[in-house]
Amino acid sequence: MAQAQFHKHQKVFVKPVGTWALVEKVIPQWVKGLNEPFRITYDVGMGREFNEEELQANAPLSHDGLDFGSNWYVERLRNTYLPLEECAGHPEPGTIPSVITNDISPGGWRVPGAEYDQDPEAVELQARIFAKSLVLMQLAKTLVDYQEQFGENLPSEIAQLANEARTILKSIIRN
Prior knowledge:
The chain is of the alpha+beta class. The chain has 3 domains: 11-56, no CATH class; 73-131, no CATH class; 134-172, no CATH class.
C-alpha cells in the first residue's frame, strides 16, 4: 500500500528535471478490493506525473551542488511594530534586519517586530550570522577538503577541527 509523501502546494525538487516545482495534484491509484491506494503519483505541472522517488522535499543534498558564493546580505526594513521614539535604544532605531537570500525576489529571513523588540542585540547578531553562514560553510568545507588531501600530514589540532567541520556539515547537509 502507498501513502502520500508530499501534499498539494508543497515545494519539491524534481530530480529528473533538476528544478523546483509545486505539487499541483496528489493522484492516488486505487485497486478494487483494497482500502488504501496501490500507488500515488504527483502532478507538478511539467507534462507528466512523477512518482515519489523522482521528487525530493528538501534541496539536493550534495554540498558540491550548493552555491557557497551566494550573495546573502542584511537589509534594513522599517519597524512598523513600534514608533521611532519607542525604539530609540535599538541598535538602528526604526528598523529591523532582514537577510536577503534570493536575488530574484525579496525572500529571505526576517523576524517579527515584536520579537525584535524583546532582544534587538540578539536578533542583530542572528542576522549577521545568517548572512555569513554560507561563507562559514565554505570555510568548513575547505578545512575538510584539506584533511582529505593532506590526511596524515596535518597537525592533530587541525585534523580535529576538520573532523568537527565534517560533522557540522553533515548535520546541515543530510545525505
